[in-house]
Amino acid sequence: MIPTADEQGVKRNFPKWLIPVAGYAISVACLVWVYKGFDWHEEFLRVKDTSLKWILLAVVADVLVYAVQGVRWNMLLRPVGSLPISKSIQAIYIGLFANELLPFRPGEVIRCYLLARWAHIHFTVSLSSAMIERLLDGVWLILGFYAASWFVELPPILLVGSRILALLLAVLAGLFIVAVYYHKYARRFINKSKWSEELLALTDAMYSMGNSPSFYLAIALSFLYLALQVVPIWAVMQGYELDLGIGAAAVVLVMLRLGSIPPQMPGNVGTFQALAVAGIRLFGYDKAIATGFATLLFVVVTAPLWIGGFIALTATRMRLDDIQKAVNENK
């Protein structure tokens, strides 16, 4: 179909650079707010005294998070494709590494492309599994958010974000339900679409995965996947000698996860620190201590991603820009 004059005008009038610039501006503003007046020397001494055992626990738990994600991904894909769990984890780490380096968080698409290539399945099928993952994660995250709101008063902006996320999840859940429980009607409707080939592959994959016994195991693993993410935060709290428990760590995690949704700098730099500071301050700690904790936490959870992602990417003997180029050619 040829775009109308109005559609062409909209494309010309909406600059592509606006969204990334807005994301970078938010991230920079967050960094300025977090580190303005921060005494690096004083807090560095506190970081230096952090017990190594807590840091090691945080790193091990962080690695286990993505191991669980790899197992869950395999469970979802079992009805439509077969791949060693190690390859699923490798694809996940490469995707995480891409998110740390590149804007617009292309890691999700990159990991789906790699898995589709290695498992010899349709790219759309791999994407559908990632959509189901995000649906399961979102449901558990929303439940965690409203559980956390019973214990502390969360910032109003997060309340707005949670409602937007809940709306998006409702739409995604509706599409999933149609694909799984009204499959024949969905196929009839899709056959009339100009994107019928891609949409049929997506719908059929969701139908197969949603009706598989392994889908229910994936739901349980989604809870474990989210729960394990609390452990690194709690471990760094203990190492930094903050008198806070698992519940406080869960609140901080929910804030960090919701805050990672809008566009921003690669690696969530800026917003990660700002939300971690805001989360710790909810429990009565001053900004200096909260900033030191946020800085240490960022290093602890980011360094394993850099190292693991670099190793995983090196094992493919491919460059990240070559993979991204291949992804764009397959869209």
Summarize the structure in words.
The protein has 331 residues and is an all-alpha fold. It has one domain. Helices cover 78% and strands 0% of the residues. Helix 9 packs antiparallel against helix 10. The chain is globular, with a radius of gyration of 21 Å.
What's the number of domains?
A: 1
The fraction of residues assigned to DSSP E strands is under 5%
Q: What integer is the average pLDDT? A: 84
Q: Compute the CA-based radius of gyration.
A: 21 Å
N-to-C CA distance: 18 Å
H/I helix tally: 16
Task: Tally the beta strands.
Answer: 0
Question: What structural category characterises the helix and strand content?
Answer: mainly alpha
Low-confidence stretches: 1-11
Please outline the major beta sheet: none
Instruction: Tell me the overall shape.
Output: globular
What level of helicity do the residues show?
A: over 70%
The succession of helices and strands, N to C, reads: HHHHHHHHHHHHHHHH
Topology:
Layout: H1 5-13, H2 18-35, H3 40-48, H4 52-77, H5 85-101, H6 107-119, H7 123-148, H8 156-181, H9 183-190, H10 196-210, H11 214-228, H12 230-239, H13 246-259, H14 271-281, H15 287-316, H16 320-330
Helix pairs in contact: 2-14, 3-15, 4-5, 4-7, 4-11, 4-12, 4-15, 5-6, 5-15, 6-7, 6-16, 7-8, 7-10, 7-11, 7-13, 8-9, 8-10, 9-10, 12-13, 12-15, 13-14, 14-15
Offer a concise description of the structure.
78% of the residues lie in helices and 0% in strands.
Tag the structure with descriptive keywords.
331 residues, mainly alpha, 16 helices, disordered N terminus
